[in-house]
Amino acid sequence: MKYALSQPAKQGFISRNSPLFDEIHHIVAENSERLARLNQGYHEPQARRALLSEIIGESVDDSVVFNTPLYSDFGRHIQLGKNIFINVGVMFTDLGGIVIEDGVQIGPRANIISVNHPSDPVERHGVLLAPVHLKRNVWIGANATILPGVTVGENAIVAAGAVVNKDVPANCVVAGVPAKIIKQL
Q: Higher confidence at residue 5 or residue 72?
């Protein structure tokens, strides 16, 4: 499978020896400096959105509100809708792709992860990519973790501290480790 780093892969594996790792490390270095600027000192909301636009490589809508610090290990594979709120200390591990639709709220210290490593020790330094998709009006609670390949359905709530390792249906609340449905909305 061939990967174009301008677009996240749908699913796949990148070997440690792949020439893509040179391009990945170049983008990581560029965005590390941008993230440091974003997270240091105070910036007006418009300036923060402009810096985030540079990091993700596309315009961030004026309705997107986020608090710093904001973390990412890559940055270019984050897609943001409108009317999104992201609280302090959120980590986006986005090489595999993260799509955040309109109206999503993400609580402090949440982790959205689209990358994993193979269990085979020979391949473990490579990366497995699996996109994460947060549908409209999702609410991710404080310190929740969304693992690679998960889709959280429209209007769903992920409780604080939950670890989500499989898709969450629309209009429900999940909680626990691993997360399980505790309520229908």
A: 72
